[in-house]
């Protein structure tokens, strides 16, 4: 079953489209199909709801909008069944139709549209702020990780420098030992030969 709130919202949207259609006739074709669909949905919804004070208000607004689009490019809407006749007959007062929209009604619709646009902008700004805050947090986390990696690389560079210094010292020590062995090679050989000769003399004497 159609909701009175949904039909009221649909009626407001349709009236806004009709006013925009009247204000910009060159763009009427872009709104005709949507207006016709909304009018059809309103008609079916009002018929489904039957009678009631709120339904009668929707019915009157529907008839007003139907008169506003009558005689133009939209397809004619079939008449809605009349509202229930009250027990006490009262003389109905008909308001003559005019092509000029009601200033108060138009101002109310424009105010409602402005509020809706402001609410949408607030929602977009909130989402943008949340996204910026999240990106800022991610950036701070990345910066912290980069600082950690930089510290590790600095420590590695220091270790490499220390290792290189130790290797250079060991290489110089080996070079000195090698030079010493080469310079004293003959002396060591003579000493070994003398030692061997002494051992042989001792052996033969015994």
TrEMBL record:
Ranges where the T-SNARE coiled-coil homology domain occurs: 115-177
One annotated Gene Ontology cellular component of this protein: endomembrane system
SMART domains with a match to the protein in the record: t_SNARE
The keyword Membrane is assigned to this record: yes
Entry membrane topology: Single-pass membrane protein
Pfam families: SNARE (PF05739)
Superkingdom per UniProt: Eukaryota
Localization per record: Membrane
Keyword Transmembrane helix: yes
Residues annotated as transmembrane: 181-204
Region span, Disordered: 72-103
Matches recorded under InterPro entries: T_SNARE_dom (IPR000727)
Keywords: Membrane, Transmembrane, Transmembrane helix, Transport
PANTHER family: GOLGI SNARE BET1-RELATED (PTHR12791)
Protein name from the UniProt record: t-SNARE coiled-coil homology domain-containing protein
Record lineage: Eukaryota, Fungi, Dikarya, Basidiomycota, Agaricomycotina
């Amino acid at each position: 079953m159609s909701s009175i709130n949904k039909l009221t919202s649909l009626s407001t949207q349709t009236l806004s489209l009709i006013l925009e259609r009247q204000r910009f006739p060159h763009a009427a074709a872009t709104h005709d199909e949507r207006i016709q669909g909304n009018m059809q949905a309103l008609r079916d919804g009002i018929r489904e709801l039957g009678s009631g004070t709120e339904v009668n208000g929707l019915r009157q607004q529907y008839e007003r909008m139907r008169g506003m689009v009558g005689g133009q490019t939209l397809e004619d809407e079939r008449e809605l069944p009349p509202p229930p006749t009250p027990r006490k007959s009262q003389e109905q007062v008909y308001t003559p139709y005019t092509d000029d929209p009601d200033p108060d009604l138009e101002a109310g619709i424009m105010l409602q549209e402005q509020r809706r646009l402001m609410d949408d902008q607030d929602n977009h700004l909130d989402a943008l702020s949340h996204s910026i805050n999240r990106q800022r947090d991610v950036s701070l986390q990345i910066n912290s990780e980069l600082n950690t990696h930089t510290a590790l690389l600095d420590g590695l560079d220091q270790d490499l420098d220390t290792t290189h210094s130790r290797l250079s010292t060991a290489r110089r020590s080996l070079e000195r030992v090698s030079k010493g062995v080469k310079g004293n090679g003959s002396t060591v050989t003579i000493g070994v030969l003398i030692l061997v000769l002494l051992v042989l003399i001792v052996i033969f004497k015994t």
